[in-house]
Amino acid sequence: MKNYECSVTFNTLSATVYDVNTSPEGLRAWWTSNCGVGFEVGAKSTFCFGETYNVMRIEKLVPGKEVRSKCIKQYHHAPGRLTKMDEWVGTFIVFRLTKNRQGGTDLIFEHEDLTASLECYEICEKGWDHFLKVSLKEYVEKGRGKTYIDG
Q: Is 148 within a domain?
């Protein structure tokens, strides 16, 4: 089965896109305002979306090029929609950055093992599409993302 994948083009340097995906300020500005972010390989980061939370362990950091994290704990709160609340556990999220011909940056995002066979796939696909294609892009290029805010 095919993993969730998304590509986004930015009119900025890869270092800028990398920084917003590895700093607390950046992640709070485009993904969720409620997170604790690790800074080095092996460190853990926690991302909260109301009652839903994901704990990720940083597996790989290549400045300006790649961020790879593994989900080690999850509770996905979706009453009446899901019977499995931890389908992300063991999956990887990967941000790969390359310079494009126009001098900007292409992001290839992959959520490895997030496939259509998972109960949460439709919810997660909509979420990633919003956070990557809208919120991250607007934050990087306009300075204001559409982050998840509790409440």
A: no
